[in-house]
Write a structure and sequence with these properties.
Helix 3 packs antiparallel against helix 4 (105-132). The chain has helices at 2-17, 43-72, 84-100, 105-132, 137-140. It is an all-alpha fold and 141 residues long. The chain is built from 5 helices and no strands.
């Protein structure tokens, strides 16, 4: 219990010292590098573009999720959901694509491992729902 209280205090203290930077003042150093130097003049402009990209990323993740749901129909049982060789191949491919597109492969790896893990959990839920409804081959036998 004491460790939890100490950890909460330390985390709270760290958050208390965090600051939000101004979103309207010009950059404090360096020159614009995005869009051939056309962006960005303020942090607000940076964040607006990040928000735009996040909307597109979530749209693409939703599309990916529909295909993950579809993939469940092709698997004989829940043990086939994880498919570790496929999961590793997806992560390695993302890292290669990242490097080719100027993204840190470490960032791609972390993001893809988290995403693949979440989709595995989602697909296991698809199997559980199908099993509960009696819509799976192993339940019908």
């Amino acid at each position: 219990m004491r460790l939890v209280v100490i950890a909460a205090f330390v985390l709270g203290a760290a958050a208390a010292h965090a600051e939000e930077p101004s979103t309207t003042r010009p950059a404090l150093w360096g020159s614009p590098t995005v869009d051939n130097g056309a962006c960005c003049k303020t942090l607000r402009e940076v964040r607006d573009n990040i928000d735009r990209l996040d909307r597109e990323i979530v749209r693409l993740m939703a599309e990916r999720g529909r295909y993950v749901h579809e993939a469940a129909r092709f698997k004989e049982n829940p043990a086939q959901v994880e498919a570790p060789e496929r999961a590793e191949a997806v992560v390695r491919k993302a890292m290669t694509l990242a490097e080719a597109n100027g993204l840190s492969p470490k960032v791609a790896e972390a993001a893809y491992r988290a995403m693949v893990g979440a989709f595995i959990e989602y697909e296991q839920g698809v199997f559980a729902a199908a099993t509960a409804a009696g819509n799976t081959p192993w339940k019908k036998q």
